[in-house]
Design brief:
785 residues; alpha/beta; 8-stranded mixed β-sheet; binds zinc ion
């Protein structure tokens, strides 16, 4: 490995010499909140007179893996309509700036619309955004309270909730009216699932432009102070009298742009059709000349759209109105980068990196009297300056392109050929026994879901019909969908339990969606839905209870097994828990399911599963090197260990209570693990972590959607060479950063009169204040991960 690294370094040095300078120049940090300061300077009395540019853009087209979400842009404001799981990840991938959001509108208190909000709020808080307003159903306030059960107090960000009963909201771009719609005959006390909130958004009239030349021709006092009141008057549509002559606004001013409106409405089932169709607010906008509705966005299933009452209601908006549909029949690739990397990785080994499922249309589109446009990721409808659909940003997923790009990389084809040869010469997985357990990594990044790596989740298929999920960060279900395609219901049907290691958002906020989608899956499979055993810190209960009582019924889907009850020698508090543990072991053919406290946050656990056939799988959760884990995991067949940071960052690893690569490998060695898979990489290593000298034939690195079994160990450890060829550019950049840091460390050590201990000598750094610069935006703020 060392030799390979040196070659890479040489190559990178040569590359730089040719390009005369570093690969990428350091840019001064951008100010993400500049827009707020500009707004402050303008003051409250500032009246822009309507926005010049406004468009709506589909973030998520409504598919089962991504939900429906819409982004609205004007030069003054940015809005988001709905924020399900994975929306933040898509916004990151497609460069829709989260820090510019000042309003989030939610159409219904259902996990599909609010599942991504906890992660989004944590990110907004880190960005330093002082205020964000959430509009929509009344339970939003309680939802925020529920989030605090695991996030702690959300200090530093003012999260205002504007309930649907509040008067209309007005800013520089538009006025927004919330329209509450109650389902027929379903009104329930408290959390009220029967309420959806629709939004009628009315753009401000754009005043006309003053025509200077025409004004000069008419002899008006252009260029003097006297022109100002004249301009103001004609822009407001009033005529003026100048030197005894009446001047009409249309003589010196272009006509104003009317106050167009758009509507966002969710109609989740037939129960809402009549209330939507009879709603008085909508009626006022159907055939309204003053604020014609340019676009109606329908978040509704096909059976609602096909209903003749709903179709008549659509028609009443008139022939000029456009209709955009976001629902599960929309087929569109959203996570393009994830598809790209998986396509390229599958060139190395198509079984370990199986190609992702591409979404296909679920249902036939019903014949509609009203022309509708189906949502696609990044499709735009522009309202100003000109009303039109814009398809230039729509995602086009072209696997051939990804393949061609990889094949052009220097050394890539050769290293893949060498790899295949080496693997062929080695033992094949079948010779090594059963293809089970099969481990599918669904999320291998830490903290924030990013385009290449989603947050923590690992599926363990114990047998063809039994599986376990180790952690369950935001978007885990979406990852399952993209991995398994149409098979996802079957896989959810095999799920026997979920292990939640600790209550950081990157490990558990995907749980509710798994519970809800599992219910749906079992129904479609015609199987009964029993509560799913969830092994987790008891503190999870508070979050589930709050969400259940205030937002949406969920508790009947879960049987909580406190993780502490599975510690060695722990007492089981009740016969009920004992029964749950017993049936879980039996269902999974496990002889043992043990947990231990690890060195991370409070109540953080690792776990060890021992199968009746003899294999032992150990999962660290998040932790610094931990002796209790080493003891519990003795002689593990496979250790899955976090390796958040690269070697040399031991100090940061202590600060954030995580492990470095070599520390994680060391734990595997001390445990005498047969193989160690590294995961939970800091998102600063977007594609691939930095390889350390400790990499050997017993170590592998995990990627999202990677699928391995115990027999794959030789195949997996040999992957490093072709991976280095595939990601040479990224590695070069990271090595450059590491070199710079090494120089800084050495300089700091000299200044403090100490011996310069290079970051790569493997010795842990002493804790001391170093003038080290943050490596990436993620490391600026410490987010519990
Ligand atoms: Zn954590
Ligand atoms: Zn984490």
């Amino acid at each position: 490995m060392w030799a390979f690294r040196s070659v890479l370094l040489l190559r990178s040095a040569a590359g730089r010499a040719m390009s005369q300078g570093p690969a990428r120049r350091q840019r001064p940090p951008k100010d993400p909140l500049r827009h707020l300061r500009t707004r402050e300077k303008r003051g409250a009395a500032w009246e822009p007179g309507g926005p010049n540019t406004v468009y709506l853009q589909v973030v998520a087209a409504g598919g089962r893996d991504v939900g429906a979400a819409l982004y609205v842009f004007s030069e003054y404001n940015r809005y988001l309509f709905n924020c399900g799981e994975g929306v933040q990840r898509l916004m990151q991938e497609h460069k829709l700036k989260v820090a510019r959001l000042d309003n989030i509108f939610l159409t219904r208190m259902h996990w599909c619309n609010v599942g991504g909000l906890c992660g989004m709020i944590l990110t907004l808080k880190e960005t330093g955004l002082p205020k964000c307003v959430l509009s929509g159903p009344p339970q939003l306030e309680k939802y925020l309270e529920a989030i605090k059960t695991f996030s702690g107090p959300l200090k530093g960000i003012d999260l205002a909730v504007r309930p649907h009963s509040a008067p209309e909201y007005k800013d520089e771009t538009m006025t927004v009216f919330q329209v509450p719609i109650y389902s027929v005959g379903q009104r329930k006390r408290g959390r009220d699932p029967s309420l959806v909130v629709a939004f009628v958004c009315k753009l401000h009239v754009k005043k006309g432009n003053f025509l200077v030349l025409k004004a000069k021709e008419l002899g008006l006092p252009v260029g003097t102070a006297a022109i100002a009141p004249i301009i103001a008057a004609v822009k407001d549509g009033r005529s003026v009298t100048y030197e005894g002559r009446e001047i009409l606004p249309e003589e010196i001013c272009t006509p104003p742009d009317p106050g167009l409106a758009f509507v966002v409405v969710e109609c989740p089932d037939e129960g809402f059709i009549r209330p939507v169709c009879e709603n008085a607010t909508f009626k006022r906008y159907q055939g309204n000349a003053e604020a014609p509705v340019a676009l109606v966005v329908h978040m509704a299933p096909e059976r609602v759209l096909a209903d003749s009452r709903y179709q008549q209601w659509m028609e009443r908006f008139g022939p000029a109105a456009q209709h955009l549909v976001l629902n599960e029949s929309c087929s569109s690739v959203h996570n393009l980068r994830s598809h790209k990397i998986q396509t390229q990785l599958s060139l190395i080994h198509p079984d370990i990196f199986p190609p992702l499922a591409t979404p296909c249309r679920q249902e036939e589109v019903p014949a509609s009297r009203v022309p509708t446009v189906r949502g696609e990721c990044l499709l735009k409808y522009q309202l100003r300056p000109r009303r039109e659909w814009q398809r230039d940003a729509v995602i086009n997923c072209n696997p051939e392109e990804f393949v061609a790009e990889a094949l052009e990389l220097p050394n890539f084809q050769e290293s893949v050929q060498e790899y295949r040869k080496a693997v062929q010469d080695g033992p094949t997985p079948t010779e090594n026994g059963s293809p089970y357990p099969e481990i599918v990594f669904l999320g291998t990044g830490s903290a924030i879901p990013m385009k290449i790596r989603n947050v923590s989740a690992t599926l363990v298929n114990i047998s063809p019909d039994r599986s376990l999920l180790l952690d369950c960060g935001e978007g885990t279900f979406g990852q399952l969908c993209r991995h398994y395609g149409d098979e996802v219901d079957r896989v959810l049907g095999t799920l026997a339990a979920v292990f939640v290691s600790h209550l950081h958002a990157d490990h558990h906020t995907g749980l509710l969606n798994i519970l809800l989608q599992r219910e749906r899956a079992l129904a479609s499979l015609g199987k009964p839905c029993h509560p799913l055993p969830v092994v987790a810190p008891t503190q999870l209960r508070a979050w589930l209870q709050q969400y259940h009582h205030q937002c949406q019924r969920i508790l009947h889907h879960v049987s909580l097994i406190p993780a502490k009850c599975l510690q060695k020698g722990a007492e089981v508090p009740s016969p009920e828990v004992e029964r749950l543990i017993g049936s879980l072991l039996q269902a999974c053919d496990l002889g043992e399911f043990q947990t231990c406290l690890v060195r991370h946050c409070k109540h953080a656990f690792g776990c060890a599963l021992v199968h009746t056939s003899g294999w032992k799988l150990v999962y660290s959760g998040d932790t610094m090197p931990c002796e209790a884990l080493v003891q519990m995991g003795k002689d593990a067949t496979l250790l899955i260990h976090e390796a958040t940071l690269e070697d040399g960052l031991e100090e940061e690893a202590v600060e954030k209570t995580h492990s470095t690569t070599s520390q994680a490998i060391g734990v595997g060695v001390r445990m005498n693990a047969g193989f160690t898979m590294l995961t939970h990489f800091s998102q600063r290593y977007a594609k691939v972590p930095l390889f350390s000298p400790g990499f050997n034939e017993k170590v592998g690195i995990a990627f999202d959607h990677m699928k391995v079994c115990f027999g794959d160990s030789a195949t997996v450890s040999k992957l490093i060479a072709p991976l280095q060829a595939l990601f040479a550019g990224d590695i070069e950049e990271m090595e450059g950063r590491r070199e710079k840091r090494g120089v800084r460390l050495a300089r700091a050590a000299l200044l403090s009169g100490e011996q310069a201990g290079g970051p790569e000598d493997g010795a842990p750094q002493q804790k001391r204040a170093l003038p080290e610069q943050p490596q990436s935006p993620q490391s600026k703020k410490v987010r519990a991960q």
